[in-house]
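Posting for a labmate who doesn't have an account.
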Amino acid sequence: MQIAVNAIFLQNNPLEGYGHYAKEVVWRMARAHPEHRFILVFDRPWDPGFSMEPNMVPVLVGPAARHPLAYKYWYDIKAPLALRGFKPDVWFQPYGFCSLTTRIPQVLMVHDLAFKHYPQFLGAAQRWYYGHYTGAFLKKASRVITVSDYSRQDIQQHYAVAEQKITVIPGAARPGFQPLDWEAKLAVKSGYADGREYFLFVGSIHPRKNLMNLLRAYSLFKKWQHSNMKLLIAGRLAWQNEDLLEKLKTYKYREDVVMLGYLEEEQLYRVMGAAYALVYPSYWEGFGLPVVEAMQSGVPVITSNTSSLTELAADAALLASPDDPDAIAQQMLALYRTEAIRNQYIHKGLERSRAFDWNQTAEACWEQLLLAVNR
């Protein structure tokens, strides 16, 4: 069987949520099914750091699809034309868009409908493209995958997608997220936090991640506790972050806030594993991968009581309204003041993280490809 794979976000600069999911799933499917060929369709030169499996064939199809007009041209004209010579049996589309012109059966992954809930966090062109075409993509696709039951219900509430067409297949944490021993934690804290304990946020920095309220919560925590605990923020500056950067210039505790930028995998594993707690107060998520990464690392989690995050956390994380800095700060204080509570959520998180496994995710995606071919 010939499987085409949309690989436009499989780039190391930087590889984030969608890209991690696609990479973990596609590589595992290729290794588990060496008798089949995977045609990886890139829109720009692929990173030589990615080791290709023997049954993977990289194909470059330009121009780069990085804005709505280019999306339309790449998905509907350039990529289908390039794939004609390969005659693929199915086309895996892991980034929420698909081709509206091809006759190849497509398996479409839609992580979330964030553009419906927080349109103000997108540019006008992006907002229009998502709003105008998402329904058509869902109709065109032979099979639809999403990452949480919350997202499944959200998709079905907004679009006429049949129950039997859509499947929930969650992501997982990469194996490198593991608990660290005391000496390793001490080395990380010395290197990144002046030897102090720290709260950690991980994620691209844009308004939906709610970092302004995280700073307000951190201020309250510092006011109540007079602690030397630091706040580390790991992630690239994405968009609409001017207010945050201006706030940090005059922020009372700015000396205790460390902006780490985007961390390479090995760095992120260590910084996560040494954290006192992950604080992830995002307004809205289709899944929320850093929550699972923290749990698997033996790090307690404070996250939002909204969207898929309550489903993901189950009873293994402390929850707070993302609109309420006081409530977020109270949960930070609870972990800090009561070691028994912190240990309880470390153990609960480790147990919860075992529900998510990349091999199971990849095999479930493979089954969806077979269903699309044999429809």
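Reply:
Got it, the structure tokens are right above this. The two ends are 15 Å apart (CA to CA).
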